[in-house]
Amino acid sequence: MTEFTLYDQDTAPDAAKPLLDNSVAAFGMVPNLHAVMAESPQLLETYQVAHELFQKTSFDKDELTVVWQAINVENSCHYCVPAHSAIAKSSGVDDAVNDALRNQTPLPNARLEALRDFTLKVVRDRGNLDDASVQAFLDAGYTRKNILEVILGYAQKVMSNYTNHLADTPVDKPFQKFAWQPAEKAA
Length: 187
Description:
The chain has 11 helices and no strands. The chain has helices spanning about 15-25, 30-35, 40-55, 60-75, 80-90, 95-105, 110-125, 130-140, 145-165, 175, 185. The relative contact order is 0.16.
């Protein structure tokens, strides 16, 4: 596997240094994902902007978690599942929601389940959903705007999940207590 450098605020390329300052301001540290992404300041900046914009969507904290974790679990991201578990915990997301996403078990309510189902269809079908799938999402109380917001969340997760796969990004110490493995590996 290709080894990637974990940059810090001193060793990062000059264009990435202010972006890592943003990471410290937002997270109190430079998450290892950001340390890897600093190799390409353009990727890190795009990821940070996508993360910020996705948090400004009409989704509440539970719905943000559903989109993020449905994608993270589907893509078997060893880094993002624990990182977003920590984010969910710090945001006050009910453990039952995050646990159901991590374990691929039923969510506490039908609306969140419809969001997970739709998000997974977007991922698995590469956005080529049939009318019935879109209508089921709309019938669950979501909107056309929410459809586009799921796409934004997916775009953000492609950047992080794929980076973590290729870099085998080490899970940061604060996230390690939320360590996760796909069900087939855990068995």
